[in-house]
Amino acid sequence: MNSSTNDLLQIGFLYNDPFGVRLINNLINKSGFCQQCGPLCINCRILYPWFAGKIKYAHKLEWEDCECVEDCLPAVEEKLSSLDVLICIALPSEFIEVLPALLKKYSIRAVIFPVENGEWLSAHDQMVLQSQLKISGIQYAFPRPFCNLSESNSPEKSIINRFIQQFHIGKPIVQFSTQNGKIIKTQVIQSSPCGATYFIAQYLRNEQLNTWNVDPLEKRISVALNKYPCTAVKTRDDTLKMITRVKAEQITQDVFKKALAQAEKLD
Asked: What distance in Å separates the CA atoms of residue 190 and residue 192, rounded to the nearest whole number?
């Protein structure tokens, strides 16, 4: 199931929020990034290669000191170069307006705008950006939140699909094995981009699912997600028409309940 890193897409980051650091640390498997198991760590994250060598650049956007877009553009352009996928996190609205032209200028083939906070990308900005990217032939995705990123059947999403397949992040996919009503093995096939899926899977490992355990699975999943903690904000996203954290928890609950329903039973 491991992929050779030699044929992986080249990706880059422009970010203006600490979520960018969380995402990058998950992809490079930074030492101490997940601490759920403590000294009993079973190295569950080694199923896939780690991707530091395929992150071409990761730049924090220094925007606060600029009086206008034109003042900041030279410094931003110094950081850009050709890529397969650019991941843009919490970029200012003024910069989003000029971004499509920059993507085309630097031969960036696809862009992903994860929206952990509805204020990062308004419905209007998304609609305008989507139209401009489509005209330029640049693939795009606007997952709200990032763990809602799924593969598409559209050939216009082929690069986005390859990104999900190769870096094993997006809407989580998990497998369980159970024995005598206990989760004895968990395997993360695809993780939420923030890395919470690994944490929750190990939080549930060795959990007894018999009726005497008074906490339902839903509550234990919710507790684990909050302990990680989840990076989606607890404010309403008008595009989602709901609180972003609630959406993230719905996705997580559905993923883990499906894994339990389809678990390999070793009884």
From this structure: 7
- Those residues whose C-beta lies under 8 Å from the C-beta of residue 254, and which sit 6 or more positions away, are none
Q: pTM of the full predicted structure?
A: 0.91
List strand residue ranges (DSSP E) for 100-220, in order: 108-112, 139-141, 173-179, 182-190
In this structure, what are the phi and psi dihedrals at residue 143, rounded to the nearest 5 degrees? Answer: -70, 130
Q: pLDDT by residue (tens digit) across 57-101?
A: 999 987 776 777 777 888 889 989 999 999 999 999 888 999 999
Give CA 68 to chain center in angstroms.
30
Angle at 60 between CA 36 and CA 32, to 5 degrees: 20
Name the region of 43 (left: φ>0; alpha: ψ -120 to 50; beta: rest).
left
pLDDT tens track for 175-223: 999 988 888 999 999 999 999 999 999 999 887 765 545 567 888 899 9
Amino acid letter for position 214: V
Q: What is the C-alpha separation between 250 and 144, in angstroms, rounded?
A: 12
Tokens of 158: 């082929």
Q: Which residues pair with 57 in a beta bridge?
A: 12
Token digits of residue 120: 């990062």
Edge-to-edge strands, sheet with 173-179: 182-190, 173-179, 264-265
Question: What does the alpha-carbon distance between residue 228 and residue 175 come to, in Å, rounded to a whole number?
Answer: 20
Strands 182-190 and 173-179: antiparallel
Angle of helix 93-105 versus helix 69-77 axis, rounded to 10: 40
